[in-house]
Amino acid sequence: MSELNELYQQLILEHNKSPRNFRVLDRCTHDADGYNPLCGDHYHVWVNVENGVIMDIGFQGNGCAISKSSASMMTAAVKGKSVAEVKALFDTFHAVIMTKIGDEVPDATIEALGSLGALAGVREFPARIKCASLAWHTLVAALNGAGSSISTENNG
């Protein structure tokens, strides 16, 4: 298990060092701003949705390694998926990281997340859960109403 944890840590560090889709989209249909006032993490997410499918996504801002890695992994995971698939993926991801310490998360659930499963360990550090979920809440806010702004203190 420690080898798996080490692999997950390396994946998180790699996404922090070289984040995917870390850019402003020239053309977007939805966007939102997300902020965690407790630690200062702040990201903006741009999404181009065509016929209900995320054709392109980008993010910019700053924050800790967990929040940047989560945003990077999220953008890679959602590109090409339908809005409904993305919202279902968010629900699964959020349920996993919000699972209380000591409660078991089925391996199949973590495996269904793909590389996002690397962030499942964040649940062991409650103060970091908002770091891992900030970009996700920002994406959902963008999909629910272009130009919106969210805070982790209102959206958890």
Q: Would you write up a description of this structure?
A:
With 156 residues, the chain is of the alpha+beta class. It is 46% helix and 19% strand.
User: Taking Cα atoms only, what radius of gyration do you get, to the nearest Å?
Assistant: 15 Å
N to C succession of SSEs: HEEEHHHHEH
- Overall helicity: 40-55%
Highest-level CATH class: Alpha Beta
Binned strand content = 15-25%
The helix-and-strand class reads: alpha+beta
Please outline the major beta sheet: 4 strands, mixed
What attributes does this structure have?
Sufe protein. Chain: A; 19% strand; 4 strands; alpha+beta; 6 helices
Outline the fold blueprint.
Layout: H1 2-17, E1 30-35, E2 42-50, E3 53-62, H2 65-78, H3 83-98, H4 107-112, H5 129-144, E4 148-151, H6 152-155
Parallel strand pairs: 1-4
Antiparallel strand pairs: 1-2, 2-3
Helix pairs in contact: 1-2, 2-5, 3-5
Q: What's this model, at a glance?
A:
By secondary structure, the protein is α+β, with helices and mostly antiparallel strands.
